[in-house]
Fold this sequence. Notes:
The chain is of the alpha/beta class. Helix content is 28%, strand content 24%. The chain has helices spanning 18-31, 53-64, 114-122, 135-140, 157-164, 181-192, 204-211, 236-239, 270-275, 282-285; strands at 4-12, 35-41, 44-52, 75-79, 87-91, 110-112, 128-131, 141-143, 172-176, 197-201, 217-219, 221-222, 229-230, 242-243, 250-251, 254-256, 265-267. The chain has a five-stranded mixed beta sheet with strand order 4-1-3-2-5. Strand 9 (172-176), helix 6 and strand 10 form a beta-alpha-beta unit. The two termini are 18 Å apart. The mean pLDDT is 96. The structure holds zinc ion (2 copies). Residues 257, 259, 262, 264, 279-281, 284 line the site of one zinc ion.
Amino acid sequence: MNDYRVLLFYKYVSLQNPEIIVDEHLTWCLKNEIKGRIFFANEGVNGTVSGTIQNIENYKSYLKSFTEFSDIWFKEDIADEHAFKKMHVRLKNEIVHGDLEEVSIENGGKRITPEELLQFYNDEKDFIIVDARNWYESKIGKFKNAITPQMKNFREWKKVVDEDLKEFKDKTIVTYCTGGIRCEKASAYMVENGFKNVYQLNGGIVNFIKKFPDTYWEGGMFVFDERRVVVPNSKQELKHIAQCHFCGEPTSYYINCHNLQCDKIIVSCHECKIGNDYCCSEECRKSPRKRKQYH
Ligand SMILES: [Zn+2]
Ligand SMILES: [Zn+2]
């Protein structure tokens, strides 16, 4: 138990030959039993991987051996097994797809530490906190009083800022996302569009919940790997904010409907997930094309 680690990392840095790194990286990871998903682009790297404690230590050294990544920040979680089934290393235009190529990282919001954010809440400071993640992520967990835009994907962020958030240009704003990467450009886009006092949560939710569980984070944290969700709080009233789609019980767990044509994300407790054969509806249960892997 607890013999595995899950790493989350990113860095915006100019890379000369990302396509060469991609090939080398995949070979190295396969040889060293690292699994997960890593994206490289001219603008940097974005990855989440899992492996045994030793293999992850080796991976960290390997990545840091590249000059560009020598100071990269790894956010680390304990796990009982691999959090991924396969290893993917891909070349991309952006390390997070948001149609924000024109936005400059240097314009990003000021970094606010978990300690400072905690202080904002404790002092009841007048600030607006905005979730830069998708609707299904904030459905199972969010910061207290956060605005949770109903985005299908990060490409909708520009529209959210231009339409829904424009009234807050003179307010103190804090943006947050899972590990901080989306906020780099999300906050920069706001600054570039006239928002006067923008902060981005440094290291994201991951960094905050590790330091201050049972405070201002409510519910679970959505993760894009086999764990599906991380539940950081132990106080009963802060554990779950979502309800099972089938029975209404509080839970943070979700499934992708196993009908491949549907694939809808629904919050479901473990019992109902099994009872409904990992499907959202009777119709989907009858589908001949269903996902084979269970979780
Ligand atoms: Zn249920
Ligand atoms: Zn379905």
